[in-house]
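Appendix B: a complete holo record

For completeness, this appendix reproduces one full record from the ligand-bound portion of the collection. The bound molecule is fe (ii) ion. The inputs are the chain sequence and the ligand SMILES; the output is the full three-dimensional arrangement of the complex, encoded as structure tokens. No fields have been trimmed.
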Amino acid sequence: MSGPETLHYQTGFGNEHETEAAQGALPQGRFNPQKAPYGLYAEQFSSTAFTAPRHLNRRTWTYRIRPSVVMGDYEPYRTEQPGLICTGPLHDSPPPPNSLRWDPFPIPEEPQDFIDGWITLAVNGDARLQVGIGVHIYCANSNMDQRFFYNADGELLIVPQQGALLALTEMGRLYVTPGEILVIPRGVKFQIELPEGTARGYICENYGAPLELPERGPVGANGFANNRDFCYPTAWYEDKDGSFLLVTKFAGVLYQATLEHSPLDVVAWVGNSAPYKYDLARFNTINTVSYDHPDPSIFTVLTSPSDRPGTANLDFVIFPPRWMVAEDTFRPPWFHRNVMSECMGLIQGVYDAKEAGFEPGGLSVHNCMSPHGPEAEVFEKASAAVLAPERYKNSLAFMFESRYMLATTPFGLGALKRQKDYVTCWKGLKKHFSLPPQGA
Ligand SMILES: O=C(O)Cc1cc(O)ccc1O
Ligand SMILES: [Fe+2]
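The structure of the chain with fe (ii) ion bound, as generated:
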């Protein structure tokens, strides 16, 4: 097993990293010399168009034992389990204006690896147009065995909630635990192992532009997620012949192809497109020290911009442990209606707007313009609270926020884990209105 202690990382978001698992494997001074060192093949991996502006351009040169084209043809994916992976658009499922919430899904009894353990709950946009997101959860109890996966439909933002993940990828290995996130670029081949035997968590599949760090504006040169805290793997490879499957999701359809060698055969690489992990505890939280509850955009870790300025295809926002000091302020999230569609999950603890019914591993969807906010008990309590400085401890919630309305999958709508009475958490909000007596 490769525990956290044996793995080394290179740090710096979007840096041009370079790494070799065998000394001298990385060509110097050019990317594709006539003969690459040690008989390796050079292969470029492009995550943005060749012509994307320099500050957005992402590509990596890999030096591998065999080029990726050494593989069988793709054919439809064969599985005994009916798949629960869906991709936008969902033509027969209009996005619901009702707010939705699910209890956590259980880890299955039957063997299920990371790929077969995907359940899609909501999607928007259109993967074929590279617009929108898919929201999935995963519940797994087996390592991916003799098979590898890549997603042609988007980048994967993986948010573990329970159990560590060991991601074996073309660019190297990453060990990721709850409280950390893992981002795997579109197209990178990988295998997930479960060092603790079981794992559960969330996946946001980003069909749009690769996630990037948000602007800091007047906050300045530091703060929020700092570039140096993003960890990229060092080169690692296996020179393994055998009988393997490469599974891919391409325009919403799963395919498989045979491989006679492990595709994790990159001995050296250089570039700025690679999987990375980030410990959410490193987030430098910035908030009010005077009054009012600021918009949660102050908690944005990563953003996938759309073509409309400031209006994201996907914002990944967290609600980390922090001090609350706002004076004369209703401190929990306010009641609101938002043009952006919100999908929330909970990694641990209790979320300040919802003290009951929103469990770690659960998920909620509050769609475009659908009203939501603190539940009745939270409203009463926070309206009467003594406003001393208070530390919000041991709690970590997050939000996938998108400009596009979220459609719920038929499985998600029909799931026993869906709380059919979610709306009743606001039923107890009483009328408090009264004017002072006339002439008083
Ligand atoms: O709906 C939610 O709980 C997420 C949220 C949190 C917050 O602090 C302000 C606005 C918002 O949408
Ligand atoms: Fe909200």
